[in-house]
Amino acid sequence: MTKVFFQDKAGNAPIVAAFVPFREAKQVMRHAVAELQGKGVSILVNDGQRIVAANGAKYWLS
């Protein structure tokens, strides 16, 4: 299992957003990118392991 962490744009403490099988982790990250882009948020970093949005929100796998 892999943990997907999320930290909001205000910089509050990171939370575990999901526990997913490793095979599905990349799909969860792609879905997060699609949702952010659908809301008009620019993506600064997307390397498959982490996402950093222009609004300061962060997602990463652990």
Describe the structure.
- With 62 residues, the chain is an alpha+beta fold.
- It has one helix and five strands, in the order ββαβββ.
- Strand 3 and strand 4 (50-53) form a beta hairpin.
- The radius of gyration is 11 Å and the shape is globular.
- The N and C termini lie close together (9 Å).
Look at the structure and give the mean pLDDT.
88
Helix content: 25-40%
Oligomer: single chain
Count of distinct strands: 5
CA gyration radius, whole angstroms:
11 Å
Residue fraction in strands: 35-45%
Discrete helix count = 1
Q: Give the N-terminus to C-terminus distance in angstroms.
A: 9 Å
Write out the strand line-up for the largest beta sheet, numbering strands in chain order: 2-1-5-4-3
Describe the main β-sheet briefly. Answer: 5 strands, antiparallel
Structural category: alpha+beta
